[in-house]
Amino acid sequence: MNKKLLALLIIAVLPLMAFDCITDFSSVTVSLNLAPITATFPLNPGSGTTYGGNTPPIDLASLFLYEGYTLTGETLHDITVGTKGEDLGNGSGTVSLTVNGVKTTLFTYNGAWAAFNTPQSLITSPLITRNQPGVDALISAVTGRQRVVLSVSGNIAKTPQTQNTDFVTVTVYVQASGHK
Questions:
Q1: Is the pTM value of this prediction over 0.70?
Q2: What is the pLDDT of residues 45-102, one digit of tens each?
């Protein structure tokens, strides 16, 4: 009996309580995951132990999957670099970003090819060294929805022997916040 009385009392008092309700959803900021930027660079077989390449221009405006949202901020979530293919020994490389004709290093990496078969994170891997001006240029390019070119250059201990089996893949994860 007491439980029923308490329930009725709560139901009777609820309308009298002053709860703040959200009536204007344009003031609610939410987190928005953007499509990742992924670039894969094949290593060609041959006699050389260096590799490199550029992506075609990437339109960063295409990352924004949430039409109708006003973006209030963007942030870099992570960048990973990974390898695929036969063990090519130790190597090192540089990942760069070109925006409006200005090329800036995003990060360098150094270690065993096999260690990168599990993609290494810019945030947690001791095999990657971030270049903050490059990261800042990336965030600025995302904010401005500009066109960018990613490039990779590096060297390895062993020469790739098989066509289309050895790759370096760079993935950039960006997150935004915004409201309707």
A1: yes
A2: 886 899 999 999 999 888 777 677 777 878 888 999 999 998 999 999 999 999 999 9
The domain defined by 25-179 folds into: Jelly Rolls (2.60.120)
The C-alpha atoms of residue 64 and residue 35 are separated, in whole angstroms, by: 7
In the 3-class helix/strand/coil scheme, how is the chain assigned residue by residue? CHHHHHHHHHHHHHHHCCCCCCCCHHHCCEEEECCCEEEEEECCCCCCCEEEEECCCEEHHHHCCCCCCEEEEEEEEEEEEEEECCCCCEEEEEEEEEECCEEEEEEEEEEEHHHHHCCEECCCCCCEEECHHHHHHHHHHHHCCCEEEEEEEEEECCCCCCCCCCEEEEEEEEEEEEEC
Distance in angstroms (rounded) separating the CA atoms of residues 93 and 35: 25
Please state, in angstroms and rounded to a whole number, the distance separating the CA atoms of residues 51 and 160: 10
Joined tokens for residue 34: 């953007």
Instruction: Region of 164 please: left (phi>0), alpha (psi -120 to 50) or beta.
Output: left
pLDDT attached to residue 160: 87
Q: By the 8 A CB rule, do 159 and 46 touch? A: yes
* Residue-level pLDDT at 28: 75
